[in-house]
């Protein structure tokens, strides 16, 4: 519950209808897309201007009340959970696309702008914003920046940080800083833009975002390749890259994921295949045609049992709709779905799939795995039931083994979902004590009172127990 003094200050700053305190509103903002995590916010603020954000930050800072930044709440690492109470600052009403600058190939947006809306606005000018998180139709650019969101086009185009050119950020003392700009080259001072991208709302509140756009590709096409085993699919993925083809997207789904998708949204995926690769290329029509032919040849040589090529946009869209349906399809398999992301070097993809299978078998669980074969980012996924503590404990042990295996293979505990609360205990497995100390020093310098997203990223390390020690 807010103090009367803090409530009055927030109401004065925000006006009517922008400070939510009803039990229904607080319940909605107590949770997000990450299952099994919930908090208890004291209130929810819905600012519409940078000046209002400044007023909120100063009022909460003086009252010692933590602020949890939030957009649409689609994050999968519990990064927007108000587990320590405090104020949720939701930027959903700061949703304007301020400028599409066709001359400089840039766009300026507010943090609540939806990713797909920016993509549509850019397309109307013949331009392209490539980052495409799976939740792009509802995720916001502020959340994408906070999590350094990835998606299916990372292999060719990179992730969110590769497109953020500048930011406006409100710091813990209420000051406002601007970083970067439209210059293609600018090395004046520290690269603060990159510091804030991926900081998960722990260093400041982003209120404006300047992103780079690229020319829209003229053509695109998709190859669906079916395999009798994951080994062959992984080999084909590596062979495509070895052939000096960098696809726009290179995705895979295993048998369990294919079956779930076809049950949920029949898309013509082959349910008898052990794994499928979905490979998209875009660019100049002649180059796309040449690359699709190379991709098909390489997949056939790697053991593909069936190949389909779609150059018609509608046919290609149907295939990619099937890939995007993986998460909602799998969510139907149990009362709760635990989906993680572990990433390894591309060359260790098959080893990581085997490690996931071994962890699942060892704990007597049903896992499905899909993800970004082109960049080694896998999404092992397991249905669970929070009413069964023994089952949930087995799932937790399986994921512990999976993360340990990813690290043993030269990988990492998260490729795109972030750390948040869900993986804070695993972060010291990935980073040295010295690196963790450096990160804490940055946090203390910019947010000495732990005002922003308190408790996220930093936590006591989880002990490595059981078979995870030997993964």
Question: What would your notes on this structure say?
Answer:
The chain is an alpha+beta fold. It has four domains: 4-90, Uridine Diphospho-n-acetylenolpyruvylglucosamine Reductase, domain 2, CATH 3.30.43; 97-215, Uridine Diphospho-n-acetylenolpyruvylglucosamine Reductase, domain 3 (2-Layer Sandwich); 219-325, Alpha-Beta Plaits, CATH 3.30.70; 334-470, Alpha-Beta Plaits. It is 35% helix and 20% strand. It is built from 16 helices and 19 strands. The protein has helices at 4-14, 23-29, 50-63, 115-123, 141-147, 154-157, 192-196, 230-242, 255-264, 285-301, 313-324, 326-330, 349-362, 389-408, 427-430, 433-446, and strands at residues 19-20, 43-45, 67-70, 87-90, 97-101, 106-109, 127-128, 164-170, 176-180, 205-212, 214-215, 219-227, 249-254, 275-283, 306-310, 336-339, 342-343, 368-372, 377-384. The strands form four sheets. Strands 12, 13, 14, 15, 16, 17, 18 and 19 form an eight-stranded antiparallel β-sheet that branches. A five-stranded antiparallel β-sheet has the order 5-6-10-8-9. A four-stranded mixed β-sheet has the order 1-2-4-3, with helices on both faces. α1 (4-14) runs antiparallel to α3 (50-63) and α13 (349-362) packs antiparallel against α14. The N and C termini lie far apart (46 Å). The relative contact order is 0.12. Mean pLDDT is 95; it is low at 466-471.
> What is the CA-atom radius of gyration, in angstroms?
22 Å
Kindly report the CATH topology of the largest domain: Alpha-Beta Plaits
Tell me the domain tally: 4
Tell me the major beta sheet: 8 strands, antiparallel
The 3D shape can be described as: globular
Strand proportion, as a percent range, falls in 15-25%
Tally of alpha and pi helices: 16
Q: Say what oligomer this is.
A: single chain
CATH top level of the largest domain is: Alpha Beta
Summed over residues and divided by their number, the pLDDT gives a mean of 95
How helix-rich are the residues, as a percent range? 25-40%
Distance between the termini: 46 Å
The helix-and-strand class reads alpha+beta
CATH architecture of the largest domain: 2-Layer Sandwich
Please count the beta strands (DSSP E, at least 2 residues each).
19
Stretches where pLDDT is under 50 for at least 5 consecutive residues are: 466-471
């Amino acid at each position: 519950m807010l103090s009367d003094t803090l409530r009055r200050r927030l109401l004065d700053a925000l006006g009517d209808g922008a400070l939510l305190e009803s039990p229904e509103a607080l319940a909605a903002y107590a949770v997000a897309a990450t299952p099994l995590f919930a908090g208890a916010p004291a209130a929810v603020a819905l600012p519409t201007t940078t000046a209002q954000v400044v007023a909120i930050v100063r009022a909460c800072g003086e009252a010692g009340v933590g602020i949890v930044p939030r957009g649409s709440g689609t994050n999968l690492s519990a990064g927007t959970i108000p587990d320590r109470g405090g104020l949720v600052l939701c930027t959903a009403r700061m949703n304007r696309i301020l400028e599409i600058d066709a001359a400089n190939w840039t766009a300026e947006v507010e943090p609540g702008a939806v990713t797909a809306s920016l993509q549509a606005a850019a397309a109307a000018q013949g331009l392209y914003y490539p980052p495409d998180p799976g939740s792009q139709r509802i995720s916001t650019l502020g959340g994408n920046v906070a999590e350094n969101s990835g998606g299916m086009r990372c292999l060719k185009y990179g992730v969110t940080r590769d497109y953020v050119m500048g930011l406006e950020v409100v710091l813990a003392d209420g000051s406002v800083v601007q970083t970067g700009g439209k210059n293609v080259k600018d090395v004046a001072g520290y690269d603060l833009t990159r510091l804030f991208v991926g900081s998960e709302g722990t260093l400041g509140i982003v209120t404006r975002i300047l992103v780079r756009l690229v020319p829209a590709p003229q053509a695109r096409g998709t190859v669906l390749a079916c395999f009798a085993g994951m080994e062959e699919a992984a080999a084909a993925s590596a062979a495509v890259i070895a052939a000096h083809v960098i696809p726009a997207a290179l995705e895979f789904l295993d048998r369990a994921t294919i079956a779930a998708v076809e049950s949920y949204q029949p898309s013509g995926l082959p349910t008898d295949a052990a794994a499928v690769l979905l490979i998209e290329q875009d660019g100049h029509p002649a180059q796309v045609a040449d690359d699709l032919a190379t991709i098909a040849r390489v997949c056939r040589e790697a053991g593909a049992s069936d190949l389909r090529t779609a150059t018609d946009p509608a046919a290609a869209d149907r295939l990619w709709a099937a890939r995007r349906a993986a998460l909602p399809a799998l969510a139907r398999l149990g009362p709760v779905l635990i989906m993680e992301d572990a990433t390894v070097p591309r060359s260790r993809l098959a080893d990581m799939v085997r490690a996931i299978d071994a962890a699942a078998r060892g704990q007597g669980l049903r896992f499905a795995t899909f993800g970004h074969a082109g960049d080694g980012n896998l999404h092992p996924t397991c249905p669970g039931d929070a009413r069964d503590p023994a089952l949930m404990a087995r799932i937790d042990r399986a994921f512990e083994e999976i993360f340990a295996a990813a690290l043993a293979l030269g990988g990492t505990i998260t490729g795109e979902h972030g750390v948040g609360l869900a993986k804070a205990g695993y972060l010291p497995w990935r980073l040295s004590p010295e690196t963790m100390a450096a990160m804490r020093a940055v946090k203390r310098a910019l947010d000495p009172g732990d005002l922003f997203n308190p408790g996220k990223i930093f936590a006591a390390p989880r002990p490595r127990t059981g078979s995870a020690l030997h993964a």
